[in-house]
Amino acid sequence: MRITLLAGGVGGARFTRGLRDHLARHGTPDGTSAEITVVVNTGDDIWLHGLRVCPDLDTVMYTLGGGIHEGQGWGRPDESRRVTDELHAYGLGWDWFTLGDLDLGTHVARTAMLREGLPLSTVTERLAVRWQPGVHLLPMSDQPCETHVEVDDASSPSGTRLIHFEEWWVRHRAALPARRFVQVGLDDARPAPGVLDAITRADLVLLPPSNPVVSVGTILGVPGIREAMTRTSASVVGVSPILGGAPVRGMADACLTTIGVETSAEAVARHYGSRREPSPTRSETTGVLDGWLVDDADASAVERLEDIGITARALPLLMGDEPGADGRTATGRMVDAAFGVAAARQTT
Amino acid sequence: MRITLLAGGVGGARFTRGLRDHLARHGTPDGTSAEITVVVNTGDDIWLHGLRVCPDLDTVMYTLGGGIHEGQGWGRPDESRRVTDELHAYGLGWDWFTLGDLDLGTHVARTAMLREGLPLSTVTERLAVRWQPGVHLLPMSDQPCETHVEVDDASSPSGTRLIHFEEWWVRHRAALPARRFVQVGLDDARPAPGVLDAITRADLVLLPPSNPVVSVGTILGVPGIREAMTRTSASVVGVSPILGGAPVRGMADACLTTIGVETSAEAVARHYGSRREPSPTRSETTGVLDGWLVDDADASAVERLEDIGITARALPLLMGDEPGADGRTATGRMVDAAFGVAAARQTT
């Protein structure tokens, strides 16, 4: 059974790990072995000190490979910052962005391979050999696309300026009002080898509770990917990253506000769009969702989403890795619910 | 008083530090302030993991900046190897060549600036701001030149193969028979900005006890540098790296053997050549030495060198930083001897 996810960092990584472990324990609905592919956002990627840093790819790789700092959700445990301190001593770098030494090993290795001319997808495959994530890791694109944020700047003639997403996210904690997101390079990007196939030939496509704007939204913005999502024969089921009007983690609310979408499970589903409901402004369907899982706190949205052709289910959405009395983790129960939605779609 | 040195790694670095400190304590012969320029060999430079490593520049910079591991003569004290261990975990790198984390900070900083398009000489100047070496540090060239070593290889159609100098030096400890040295890129290199001026406008040019083949020899091989050495009005005085038939440090004997020069203080001086004695094979003078300091053990060479126009002096050449009863260090006494040779030349 082929399952494909479009994922950002922490939320996508943890959901994918829960999925992988759940299927390893309880099997797939059709009893075949699970073949999981994760298409990872690379819009947060950044050059720092001449090194290529891919935050979401690393978070997914470390999380699935047992090398993640569980407490913070990103980076490696037992980190040190000897190299970064040296760089600062040379007057280089941002003092609000520290690369740990272990993490830096990954960036040096990646950059060395990129400089040799290997595409990011091949580099990702080689790095993953060490981590054995148990899934197929794919960057959304081999072309660099970097999300920038337009913020107010009274000193600029235009009154605004663009800063890299990481500066807005990490330095300003998304608190600086954002006028819009600009994905530099996205229009010219192509899906990485295997991405379109992973979507169109999947049995199930999942959107984990990743940021719908700057993670999943960026992936869907790579020319060809949204179209593959609309035409795949697989069911597409998403997990709401918004629970009771707030993101579980991260600052997705600031991103949603910037693009004019309310911070609610229902509004995010409507933003993704229904695969059955044609877009009001375009003749073809551009929605990507068949199903949508919301938290119990958002159960009131279920009926309204069903009205636009999105099969919705309400259940507890807080992820957890500890199995309950039924031997299933919270994430495992979400996975089961997604399978249930997909099965319900196929019988209608 | 302008003093310029052509230097390799450990020997050149320690001699330059001794020179700088001696002049700070005892002043220059003419009472003016000392302006010291070190032209450093970059033939040992190497790309490792996509990072530009410049062993000799770093050794000189760390030594003069108080950041050297005194025991081993190169690298930083209190080192760790967390990043390199990560690189090895990814299956990258040579297991016989470890970059310490602190040292790696320098390589990352340098590479970032090189990738931005800055020439190595500018990068070196920027890195030196942190270390305040008290001298002007110049790479011999902004163009990459990497020394390779031709060694026997029965599996190759030619019976030989080229390996990077660092592989021969560090991995094989110079014990693999070397047929010849090949300086890749040297013929197309140009002296870095300031190098020719530093030689031709100097009051004194010193060759510290660096490797005469792969350090000073490589610098002299940059087109234009040897010619500047022959025409400078400054006296050129060298310090023998060979004491009593053996190198004080390093494996200069293996390098000398490869180019057919005997491992002796006298043979090295003859190899550099006298500025007063025309080359037997060329009409113009290609020798670079006016004076030569040998160890007391090699005092018998003094007269024979004088016969070919090289003013020689015998004195203890083992370097040391502890002042003796006269308040002068061993290195300081070598510097005084070099000044003495230069003065003797000017009165003849």
From TrEMBL, chains A, B:
<dbReference type="InterPro" id="IPR002882">
    <property type="entry name" value="CofD"/>
</dbReference>
<dbReference type="InterPro" id="IPR010115">
    <property type="entry name" value="FbiA/CofD"/>
</dbReference>
<dbReference type="InterPro" id="IPR038136">
    <property type="entry name" value="CofD-like_dom_sf"/>
</dbReference>
<keyword id="KW-0460">Magnesium</keyword>
<keyword id="KW-0808">Transferase</keyword>
<dbReference type="GO" id="GO:0000287">
    <property type="term" value="F:magnesium ion binding"/>
</dbReference>
<dbReference type="Pfam" id="PF01933">
    <property type="entry name" value="CofD"/>
</dbReference>
<dbReference type="GO" id="GO:0043743">
    <property type="term" value="F:LPPG:FO 2-phospho-L-lactate transferase activity"/>
</dbReference>
<protein>
    <submittedName>
        <fullName>LPPG:FO 2-phospho-L-lactate transferase</fullName>
    </submittedName>
</protein>
